[in-house]
């Protein structure tokens, strides 16, 4: 079976392409490299031994979409990763975010409709739950979706709404995966996360500090009502997350549901300080860090109930936090010694 992966050169997309190829799927990638590097496609081939069919193009460009569907007949499903993802940047440039993440999704659905293609997996986020009462944890998919606290978060909320409407009126079959906090890299360290500039996310900041690119990590707050005062998140290995997409594609071919959402996490919450300690333990390094003030917009704690994904997708996270941190560290070391970023 052939699957189109938009944003397939990106962090989660590249790991998903590897799992799809090793699971026997043919993969076509559409990416404009706005937040990735074309060398990623060569490294995917080094891992899987298979060349990725590829169109350099933009989901907002009708001609590019038509090229994909004409050049590669037989595509049966789409996994839609292509989007912008930086929360702070979305506050500064909301129109760019609504254009890429919302208009991009609309154009993609229109092109899919023209190609008589209805199955789509969408990248959503646990950010749709906002700040949740501790009694609701681990959070299930039945928890209310709340007003987003950034334009980026709003694009995920609106994305789910427009896909729900399209499933009702146009017969699309949709799986929306609400990712918790993806971290780590492929075991080979040939692909991983490529943050541009100063990373916003915790794990790239940790690995860049450990390798000496950053002076020190600031832990954003140790006065939260948690076991050690730092925030709690559900950190999921990117290869486990990738596999959820393969399961979602299988589900789209067997289920009668037109629109389904699934939490994709581990079910375990870890504090920032626990992640720092785990990193030091698995890598044998001492991390230079300090405690700083809280970061605006951070929720105190969130972690997933993944029972629905386990029961209906047959998917469950298998890897540990330690393994994710170890692979993230291997990837940072690989980046330091390879011409990957040229
Ligand atoms: P990423 O930036 O690494 O990957 C996105 C890819 O899409 C990049 O290769 C980029 O070049 C491409 N792209 C962006 N706009 C495009 C366009 N208009 N046309 C074609 N290609 C385009 O991001 P990621 O971390 O892999 O995230 C993938 C998806 O998952 C995004 O939709 C993101 O919002 C969502 N998500 C990510 C996280 C996370 O923590 N990484 C959490 C929740 C949801
Ligand atoms: C953030 C976004 C979320 C988005 C996700 C993926 C916010 C408020 N949330 O999630 O919408 O879907 O990224 O891109 O931006 N931390 C530090 N020091 C650092 C960096 C992070 O202490 O230098 C802490 C944070 O306070 C948080 C935890 O580490 O408690 C995880 O942070 P991060 O990796 O940025 O992810 P989220 O904030 O959960």
Structure characterization notes:
This protein has about 350 residues and is of the alpha/beta class. The chain has a domain at about 1-185 and about 235-265: NAD(P)-binding Rossmann-like Domain (Rossmann fold). It contains eleven helices and 13 strands. It has helices spanning about 10-20, 40-50, 60-70, 85-90, 95-115, 150-170, 200-210, 240-255, 270-285, 305-315, 320-335; strands at about 1-5, 25-30, 55, 75-80, 120-125, 175-180, 180-185, 215-220, 230-235, 235, 260-265, 270, 290. The chain has a seven-stranded parallel beta sheet, sandwiched between helices. It has a two-stranded parallel sheet with strand order 7-10. Strand 1, helix 1 (about 10-20) and strand 2 form a beta-alpha-beta unit. Helix 3 (about 60-70) runs parallel beside helix 5, helix 7 (about 200-210) packs across helix 11 (about 320-335) and helix 9 packs across helix 11. The two termini are about 35 Å apart. The mean pLDDT is about 95. The structure holds nicotinamide-adenine-dinucleotide and uridine-diphosphate-N-acetylglucosamine. Nicotinamide-adenine-dinucleotide (NAD) binds near residues 10 and 179.
Notable features of this structure?
single chain; 342 residues; alpha/beta; Rossmann fold; seven-stranded parallel sheet; two-stranded parallel ribbon; 11 helices; 13 strands; globular; binds nicotinamide-adenine-dinucleotide; binds uridine-diphosphate-N-acetylglucosamine
């Amino acid at each position: 079976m052939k699957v189109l992966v938009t944003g397939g050169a990106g962090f989660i997309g590249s790991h998903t392409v590897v799992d799809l190829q090793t699971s026997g799927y043919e993969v076509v990638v559409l990416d404009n490299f706005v937040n990735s590097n074309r060398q990623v496609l060569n490294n995917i081939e080094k891992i899987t031994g298979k060349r990725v069919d590829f169109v350099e193009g933009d989901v907002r460009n009708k001609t590019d979409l038509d090229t994909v569907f004409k050049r590669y007949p037989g595509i049966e499903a789409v996994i839609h990763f292509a989007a912008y993802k930086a929360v702070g940047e979305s506050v500064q440039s909301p129109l760019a975010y609504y254009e890429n993440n919302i208009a991009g999704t609309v154009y993609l659905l229109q092109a899919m409709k023209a190609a008589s293609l209805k199955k789509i997996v969408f990248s959503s986020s646990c950010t749709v739950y906002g700040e949740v009462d501790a009694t609701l944890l681990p959070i299930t998919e039945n928890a209310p979706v709340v007003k987003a606290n950034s334009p980026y978060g709003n694009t995920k909320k609106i994305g789910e709404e427009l896909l729900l409407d399209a499933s009702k009126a146009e017969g699309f079959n949709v799986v929306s995966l609400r990712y918790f906090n993806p971290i780590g890299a492929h075991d080979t360290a040939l692909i991983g996360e490529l943050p541009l500039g100063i990373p916003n996310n915790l794990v790239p900041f940790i690995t860049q500090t450990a390798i000496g690119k950053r002076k020190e990590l600031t832990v954003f707050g140790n006065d939260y009502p948690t076991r050690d005062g730092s925030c709690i998140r559900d950190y999921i290995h990117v290869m486990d997350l990738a596999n959820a997409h393969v399961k979602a594609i299988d589900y789209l071919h067997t289920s009668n549901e037109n629109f389904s959402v699934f939490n994709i996490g581990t079910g375990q919450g870890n504090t920032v300080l626990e992640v720092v300690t785990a990193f030091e333990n698995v890598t044998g390094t001492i991390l230079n860090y300090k405690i700083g003030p809280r970061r605006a917009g951070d929720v105190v704690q969130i972690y997933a109930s993944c029972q629905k994904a386990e029961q209906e997708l047959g998917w469950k996270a298998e890897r540990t936090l330690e393994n994710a941190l170890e692979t993230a560290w291997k990837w940072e070391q690989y980046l330091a010694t390879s011409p990957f970023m040229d």
